[in-house]
Amino acid sequence: MESFSKRLTDAVLRRQNPVVVGLDPRFTSLPVGLTEGVDERDRSAVAAAYLEFCRGVIDVVAPLVPAVKPQAAFFEQLGPAGMTVLEATVRYAREKGLLVILDGKRNDIGSTAIAYAEGYLGPPDSSSWGADALTVSPYLGDDSLTPFMDVAVARGAGIFVLVKTSNPGGATFQDLVAQQQPVYRYVADWVQRQAAATAGTDRYGCVGAVVGATWPEQLAELRQAMPQAWLLVPGFGSQGGGPEDVRGALDQGGLGALINSSRAIIFAHSRPEYKDQYGDAQWQRAVEEAALEMIEQMRAVIP
Amino acid sequence: MESFSKRLTDAVLRRQNPVVVGLDPRFTSLPVGLTEGVDERDRSAVAAAYLEFCRGVIDVVAPLVPAVKPQAAFFEQLGPAGMTVLEATVRYAREKGLLVILDGKRNDIGSTAIAYAEGYLGPPDSSSWGADALTVSPYLGDDSLTPFMDVAVARGAGIFVLVKTSNPGGATFQDLVAQQQPVYRYVADWVQRQAAATAGTDRYGCVGAVVGATWPEQLAELRQAMPQAWLLVPGFGSQGGGPEDVRGALDQGGLGALINSSRAIIFAHSRPEYKDQYGDAQWQRAVEEAALEMIEQMRAVIP
Predict the structure, then answer these.
(1) pTM for the whole thing?
(2) Any idea which architecture B4-301 has in CATH?
(3) What local confidence, expressed as pLDDT, does residue B118 receive?
(4) Domains of chain B: which residue ranges?
(5) Nearest-CA residue of chain B relative to A71?
């Protein structure tokens, strides 16, 4: 089986951009056509609207970008009905040729970590959820991360470990300094070691890192500290990060980082610049415009 | 609505012990009667076996202990079928009068954290999963924890934040020392502040901490550092912690800490001391014996 890193490299080169579209369905933000007549308290009905919405986004972005990133929380909020729709969304995206990075920020130890990894990672025939990669939280330490990595590698999948997150509160514990190094740097060092160990003959490995676009200085520092890790960069767009902030994350060939945008693309029909032109009725046109706009911005900053 | 801390206090006093039974179903560890003829690759059939098993454990322990702790990973491993069974397990346990602490180690930021919290916490009529409390990972910092706390308090539920976990690798990042204090101590200070803020007129608040029984020295230190936080203590039994190790976590009235045991109770039919007497056929008798044994051990160490 081809490695996750190889598949990701191919996908980015094929689409000639590193954009990841975040699938964060929220009931009150959906185009009105999808929620009209739906009772917000009816979880199955809301889940059905989420699926229609996510499929609509996937149809538009599949020919344009290498990957999508469903946010598990919004599906889990709906209970089992939401989880059924999450599974359908992952499978639909894969069928359309997209890589799927499931944003679940899971973590546990030993055999429990293996259960998560086996549940979420790998081709749909070997795993329930069938994602190409999963985000993982590092607080439980080395023996919580290794099982995720082992399952991922065995199944041609990947993991992205939270290193320096995009939110202001990311500093609370991540920026504590132990022996001249912030905590996030220790996590980064772990990621780099495992990225190197899983790279084989590729430039990048199958263990990557989440580093927010909202900390451009640390993004540059962490790019250097993890030369063989794919960086998954949230915080672009709605959270304030711009094209110049992420330039340093990409290598000369435009590889090595994935730049995520969620709301600014999927809810583009509500953005002032698209609202009048497309509005709710032509929401997929707005998604397409917003995706193309971001792709152009990214191509302009590829070194 | 009564606060989580109040309900937990009542439950511990009613049962006169602080034992939490961990519901960690694993296919190959189930009593043979529940797995005979079940194809391990058939996720729906495995999920059905998990539900039968969990209900069987709940029937036995509901009159004995205050709470159960389902481990989300083992249900998620089975995909949507597992999640449906997780929901049914939580509801069954509540119907039988048990408090339910869902071990999901979730974490995210802002509105995404709210989505998790709203999905998992609160009475079954307000939340899909309907747990009384959820375990939460702290790596993303202050603004990732506050939303969980806010939703919990509003719904009469609680959270347990990972502070010092029971696994050996827990030391990797948690024990890094910044300005004379380990990282876990900073997390503990956050927990204590919020425990105090949510305690009202009770002794303990609705924000608790996970502290492993495998680190008795730190358990004593953290008990002192978080005088108003309920401690959820894993690592007892199979992971090596014993009654003497957890003595210091309990206050004079036997409150303030919950001691979790999973495999040693739920898979007691495989333990050498019960195997011959009960075996697979009378597995529920073995569960009862093992639970009663632990309850007795705990009563012996209550200060």
Answers:
(1) 0.97
(2) Alpha-Beta Barrel (3.20)
(3) 97
(4) 4-301
(5) B112
